[in-house]
Structure formats: C-alpha cells, structure tokens
Write a structure and sequence with these properties.
291 residues; two-stranded antiparallel sheet; Rossmann fold; 43% helix; 2 domains
C-alpha cells in the first residue's frame, strides 16, 4: 500500500512525463526505436510455389526433406527497464536523489513506449533481483511500474548488474530495447553488458551527482560508503586532498565511459542537478543520424 506522499509522487511523475512525451519525445522515440520489420516464426515443409530463397538448408540437410523458414511481421517492441535500487542511488546533493531521477526517467521511457503500443517490463535490482514485472501494455501497467519503483524497499545494498542481465536473459526470449538506469559504480558489468548488447538494443542511463566529483571545503566530515557501510573521517579543508579526490573521480568516470563504449552500448549521462531533457534529445538526435 502506497502512502499518501507516494501517491502524490506517482501523480506528479505521471503528469510531468506524460506532458514531455506528448510534447517532445513521442515522435523521437517512434523514429529511433522501431520494430525490426520481420522476425522468424517457424520452419515448415517446402510446398510447391514457395520461394527457394526461404529454404532452410540446415534443416533440409538434417532431415533429407526440403524445409522453408517462415517469418512474421514484427510491429511491436518490448521495452525492459532495469532499475538499480542499490544504496548508492539513495544519494543526491542538489535537486533530487538518484533513485527519484531513475523513477522519473523510467516513467518517461515507459510512457513513450506505450504511446507506440509497445510492451514495458521492469526489473529492480541491487545485489539481487528485488522485483520483476513481465512486459505488458497500457497506462494502468505503466502506473504500476512507477508505483513499484517508488515504493520498493530493497533488501540488498550492493549492486550486481551482471545478475540483472542474466535474469533478463532467462525471462526475455525476444530482442528488446533495454534501458539500464544505474550509477554504474559496480566495476564488474563490462562483459555482461557486451554479451547483452549482442541480443538486445541496450542503452545505459548513467545517474551522476556533482558531489561525487568534488568535495566542498567544510572542514572535518564523516563520510559513509553507501553500499558497504564503511566510514571515513575526511579533512575537506585540505586543498591537496580535494584536488586528489577530484582527479580520481574524473579518472573513474572516464574509465566508466570507456568501458561503456567498449561494451558497444549507447550511454546517456544524466546528473541530478540538471534537467534531463537536453541529454535525452541529444541521444535521440544521435540515434537518428546514425540510422
């Protein structure tokens, strides 16, 4: 059961994202994410008049009887939202938490999908699978997706992106558009992401916060590592320490971006202190140019 505050949050996200979809993203989504045209349906015995170009030579050789491949027109897509709910997403130093940003972006992608009559599925993960909803259509289903993202009380604290992608492999047999919304602090995702990208159209939606790359000069502070609980006392008045922190954080982000490119997935980097409209529009324009 959602609290009154959570219900208000669902309604607010619905109004805001529906407006953005209607005014800005629906056409962009439809032009970038399209059905593949045809998909394999079955193999059947060859009949006189069949196009010889459709003969399945492997099955024909194995059985000794001519068989042909049949295809069905594919109009609809399946969109899967993989939402990171680890403890590190419960952070935000400016406008909103990364988890709240993920919920709003998930709603935006979901409403864009149903405006194109596509199905939407959901996987919420930490270091385990916290919740999974099979792909379905309709506004009612999308509202449930938003409610579940907002109301989830995760058991795990860590992040296991490979486990989420393995779960996706077991539950999704057809090619899908997969949005992974995470801060990608788990360093062990590159190979799993590369494998997933061979089957699906994978888009990494990277959630950033400015305080993760710069420390303010506020003297002694105690910091806690969100996913492990480890605590550190840091003297932020030390200029060299702040500069070293900034260098290491910038290097970590550069390495993250390099790994995403190496995994052959598109990435959208969105910060908690800025509007996500322009990064999304840049992404859609880039995809349109490439197509």
């Amino acid at each position: 059961m959602l609290t009154r505050e959570q219900l208000r949050a669902v309604r607010k996200i619905q109004i805001r994202t529906s407006h953005l979809v209607t005014d800005m993203f629906a056409g962009q989504y439809q032009s970038v994410f399209k059905g593949r045209g045809i998909e394999f349906a079955e193999v059947r015995l060859y009949q006189p008049g069949d196009d010889v170009r459709t003969i399945d030579w492997n099955v024909t050789a194995r059985t000794g009887v001519p068989h042909v491949k049949r295809y069905a027109e594919e109009r609809e897509l399946t969109v899967m939202l993989l939402i990171d709910a680890s403890a590190s997403t419960q952070f935000g130093s400016v406008r909103q938490l990364k988890s709240a940003l993920a919920a709003e972006l998930g709603a935006l992608f979901a409403f864009s999908a149903i405006s194109n009559n596509d199905k939407v599925g959901l996987v919420i993960f930490t270091d385990r699978i916290e919740l999974a909803l099979p792909p379905r259509k309709g506004t009612h289903h999308v509202l449930r997706v938003i409610r579940d993202i907002l109301s989830i009380q995760p058991v795990g604290r860590g992040t296991d992106i490979p486990a989420a992608l393995e779960h996706l492999r077991t539950v999704t047999k057809r090619r899908s558009v997969v949005f992974i919304l995470s801060d990608f602090l788990d360093p062990n995702w590159r190979q799993a992401l590369r494998i997933a990208a061979r089957r699906h159209d994978v888009i990494a939606v990277v959630l950033d916060d400015p305080r993760e790359v710069t420390l303010p000069d506020v003297g002694l502070v105690e910091l806690e590592e969100a996913e492990t609980g480890a605590r550190y006392v840091v003297d932020t008045s030390n200029r060299r320490l702040r500069e070293a922190f900034a260098r290491e954080a910038a290097a970590a982000r550069a390495e993250r971006d390099r790994r995403l490119r190496a995994a052959d997935v598109d990435a959208i980097v969105i910060a908690t202190d800025k509007s996500y409209t322009e990064p999304l529009l840049r992404f859609f324009r880039m995809r349109e140019r490439r197509q």
